Amino acid sequence: MTQRATIPLVDIPIDSLLNNEAAVKGSLVLVTGGASGFGRLLAVQLAKAGASLFLVDLNEVALAALVAEIKGNGGSAASASADVTSTDAQRSAFEACVKVFGRAPDIVYANAGVNGNDNFEEDDGGDAPKPWRDLTFKINFRGMVITSALAQEYWAKSPAKAPRRLVFTASMGGINGIPAGSCYAASKHATLGIWKGLADDLAAGKLSGFTVHAVCPFFAATGILPAAVRFFLAGVPLVAVPTVSNALVYIAAGSKELGNDGAILLPDAGKPTILRAKDYDPLVQEFTDALDSRIARESSNVAAGSWGQWFSDVTNIFNRTAAAA
Ligand SMILES: NC(=O)c1ccc[n+]([C@@H]2O[C@H](COP(=O)([O-])OP(=O)(O)OC[C@H]3O[C@@H](n4cnc5c(N)ncnc54)[C@H](O)[C@@H]3O)[C@@H](O)[C@H]2O)c1
């Protein structure tokens, strides 16, 4: 087995997250789930730094209040109410953004998410498992896939005016898992799968014209955290909500350390750290190395002369095909 490589952590001091925020001046930014929590603070901070905001959320009342607040402070913002699980609704939101600002957004945050009570392991204790309520996956995964696809579709239709970035709000649960939160954690693993897939396609030159990023916060005290979870976490230092939103601003501003595909991990109340897409694989390298050597041994069985097994397998295939005919 090969030695697992140690990946040096590239930490970002919390108080330097906004150092380069002036770089977002003039950018047009679309944020899903922009009416509260991380999305709301992100919008306020970006507007202060001179970006224009297009906010998408289910919560119309909170959207209207936030747009009024940003405009009241001299910023530029508009919004559309949309359910991110619907392609049509998100397309209407992108259309509205183009109508209001005259162009596609430069930076798109796929951020809307829920912490639904849809865990795989929950059933009613009876004979039949309870049907899985998959709303968490629909919002946290399907919603983000739709946002990602629409961003790329709108970018393909128009020339870039500013750096284009696609940003997914994942979670540390998408790396470590979450006790009693299997569905949520799985949805965030899936989110990181989109990030990694797009990053690989960009690196291979199959996609171009934008950068792709993710943030992975540990628990933070937003509306998504139910009282029961807060009780469970009592005494544990959570990530400060502004640290997460400032990490999202850091991504919008771009940096050498972040490159074209950096994700920001916020694994505790301390410094955020950068994970590049190429380093996402070695996290499981030791396992895949072990698996590779096992696969090589198994497939060498035929070469080693186990033709009896080969003959028996092929005979079975012929017999089954004949019986089915
Ligand atoms: N707070 C945490 O502990 C934490 C940790 C890791 C990741 N996250 C992720 O951060 C993101 C933002 O969450 P938050 O913590 O700011 O919570 P939040 O509840 O304050 O914000 C989420 C927003 O998404 C909106 N939303 C929910 N379903 C929607 C839908 N179907 N269509 C459109 N909008 C919808 C909500 O109305 C809300 O405004 C989520 O993806 C969440 O999973 C949160």
UniProtKB/TrEMBL annotation:
Any Pfam family matching the protein: adh_short
Annotated transmembrane regions: none
GO CC aspect terms: cytoplasm
Molecular-function annotations in GO: oxidoreductase activity, acting on the CH-OH group of donors, NAD or NADP as acceptor
Domain of life: Eukaryota
Keywords: NADP, Oxidoreductase
InterPro entries in UniProt: NAD(P)-bd_dom_sf, Sc_DH/Rdtase_CS, SDR_fam
Family designation: Belongs to the short-chain dehydrogenases/reductases (SDR) family.
PANTHER family, per database record: 15-HYDROXYPROSTAGLANDIN DEHYDROGENASE [NAD(+)]
Protein name in the entry: Purtative oxidoreductase
Biological source species: Vanrija pseudolonga
Higher taxonomy: Eukaryota, Fungi, Dikarya, Basidiomycota, Agaricomycotina
Gene name in the database record: TM_0325_1
